[in-house]
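Chapter review: from sequence to fold.
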Amino acid sequence: MHLKIKYIIASLLIWTVPLQVLADHDTVVSPDGEESDIRINPQVDYTSAPEPEERIEIPRFINRNANHIRMNRADWGGLSENLAHADSSRVSIVHVGDSHLQADMATAVARRRLQSDYGDAGRGLVAPLKMAATNEPRDYAFKGVDGVWVSSKLMKRPWTVKMGFTGVSTVPMSGKGTLEVSTLSRTGNPQTFDIVRMFHSAQPEVAAAVPYAVSGVRNDSLVSVITLPEPLSTIGLDVSLPSDEAIYGMSLERSRPGGLLYHVVGNNGATYTSYNGIDGFASGVALLNPDLIILSLGANEAFSRMTSDEMYSSIGVMVDRLRKECPDAGILLTTPMECLRSTVTRRRKGRRRRVRSYAVNPRVSAMRDVILRYGRDHGIATYDFYEVAGGAGASAKWISAGMMARDRIHNSAKGYGVQGELLYEALKDAFSNHDLSDKK
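The token string follows.
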């Protein structure tokens, strides 16, 4: 179907919710849809987010004795080899997750810490999140500056344009348009890049937009590699795409030898199943040449009706596909920490009241158990952040310390800073062994 027609149809779709007729004395518990909207459209507060270089204090209630990676006999030999020669061999980490990753607060800390240790190979993956009408990390801007761009995001069906492995996609309605991508920094020191790798569904025509310049363009059906004459923090690209094709994102890299790239694929509301529904997801991840793939999902499954067996199966689908497409990459499964779910009670007798209450979501613990069991059963390394964060009862301590957001599902900027620091420590502890093959 022609892109313009699909766009018009998608724009006219209306989601309807059945109305409930209430008696005067009825008490109504809010449906899951309200929390679903919170998870897909979280309120992100960047104001107190630490700069990645800042020292982050770890509260005493964190279980640092548990802050390690259990290898479960997994073989990370390829990663070990590249880490040992990071001055000349590029190390690539791909971290896949949900809204806890999309804002890139915890992962930004882990990224900058690891790049300080192993070399800065560039910002890595950036995606047209804001173009798809969702929140974007604060250290880059990805925008269409010429032409009318149509975009899709993972959890909003039907997709108007083809969906790619990043969970967002965009295309100029006329087939031609200009994209501008910038790295940003509150301290005025953004990460520069002199190589841009653009990911797409079909080979486009790419050229420098005025007043920018490129040294060369080499592309195929899935990736265009654009070389810049000097390191920059902003580039504009004129793009012409075949009909019904799409752009999924770019990797902003440095041409220096070696160093570490830490790519993040994060989408609000995402689950293992939603990523499994993207045609070619694993082959898209393979384009990032990962040495290590971190999978941080399970939180949204805990708010669904998914059974433990269904969760186990969905992990298996993703892991099997990633192992097929990325046979040399290590895989790490992480568990979500305890969070709360809310209930809204509306009383219609006399004065109308709307009361919200919170309780621990017990299904988070159940999903955590499934993730750990899958790792043990299949020789996949695991990082039990549920236990590291404090286990059962941790959410009350995080709330008291100002480390959870008001929705009691996401963390605050302070909390994500702590989470990123802990993840870095666990990874560095594993990496410092420099022999990650066949560990228990």
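Two observations follow directly from the output. The chain has twelve helices and 19 strands. Residues 413-431 form the longest helix (19 residues).
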